[in-house]
Design goal:
The protein is mainly α. It has four helices and no strands. Helix 1 packs across helix 3.
Length: about 80
Amino acid sequence: MTNSPTDSLPPISDKRWEALVSGEIVPEVKMLALRIMLSRSNISIREDPSPTNMQKIIKEIYQFLRDNPQTAQADIAALFK
């Protein structure tokens, strides 16, 4: 069995997700779709910093990365070193 790039994704409960979607950390990502998602998530969190909104956005980005393991491989490595 081979390892998938998404095997390195931390669980949704990991605090690094909150830092990522809130803009606290701003990693350099290559995928345009992911850059747009992160930019929109930063705006959404500024407008509604509730835990419910935070979890919704984290789940969306997590699922996007899970659904695109090959194209997101380099960005997954950069996001969660």
